[in-house]
């Protein structure tokens, strides 16, 4: 059975800002199995949970700013538990020095312990800069090796963008990778595009996810030459064709 497919709602952030629940309705109509949040647009956990139930959408995860994890973790955990979300994802961090990255890892260890104690998963989402080196290892490897219980939402686009072989890296962390971000890449200019309309080996990435412990395939797109809602619908249709072949 193919993995369920979610939409990272950052892809349609303008539509969400204008009409959040109306956008969720359109996402459900497209045939997505779930959504991955990137903000809640003033809605309570109870409101969101009721709306998702109405639409038949599941929660794949939520991107939550690192500062919220660091400064108000108890409130974050309580909200996500009420929402029914298992995967609490730190979507971005960047530091200039090795000392700062190591201090960040120390803070992640504290966060991971509390999130796990609450019965939830703490996950880090990469971009390209985590494939710079700290000593002899990639920053992302240092974080995953050094933070017990930390899992990864591997963004395959950014792994490729960093010049790292995606398949090899997916295999390396297969047992710590509950979520995978899929976005395709145009060559000129180099930016994201609809799944199936670019040059990345999306079918291979999805097959590897199917063979591993991945729970959700998550479509994300960050650059558009048409309405974002139209683009993410095309991406879903194309991904379903790829995984069904």
Automatic annotation (TrEMBL):
InterPro entries in the record: IolE/XylAMocC-like, Xyl_isomerase-like_sf, Xyl_isomerase-like_TIM-brl
Xylose isomerase-like TIM barrel domain location: 24-240
Record's keyword terms, sorted: Isomerase
Single GO MF descriptor: isomerase activity
Taxonomy, superkingdom: Bacteria
Regions annotated as coiled coil: none
Keyword check for Isomerase: yes
Pfam families, A to Z: AP_endonuc_2
Record SUPFAM superfamilies: Xylose isomerase-like
Name used for this protein in its record: Sugar phosphate isomerase
Gene source species: Listeria booriae
